[in-house]
Input
Amino acid sequence: MTAGLLTFRLSRLFDRLQHPVLLFDAAGLGVFAVAGTQKALDYGINWPAVLGMVSGIGGGMVRDVLTAQVPTVLRADIYAVAALAGAVVVVAGAELGLSPTAASLAGIAFCVFLRIVAIYRGWKLPVAGSEAS
Output
């Protein structure tokens, strides 16, 4: 019942997403970016946010290559930036002494939120050589 009410309330969002795959992809991006970041933090690896970002975008790249598409991360979409933002939230949470669970949930939520808003609003990164309109 709750899912049905949310669907009616957020119908414009779902129309804009066009495919539920994008919603699940955003969730997977957040989970894997955070998991990679947590592993890097656990093992004391330098630059844990970068490792988390790479962990997050790896699955999407494989998916796109297997479906003969240009990987999302190589287009102007806010994809790797969302993964990096979620990973930075996890690192910041660890530095502030938050529990790993709280930092992870915050990182996932921020990554998914940023990715979905970027899709919904049509946000793109600037492309080198393109003229500003």
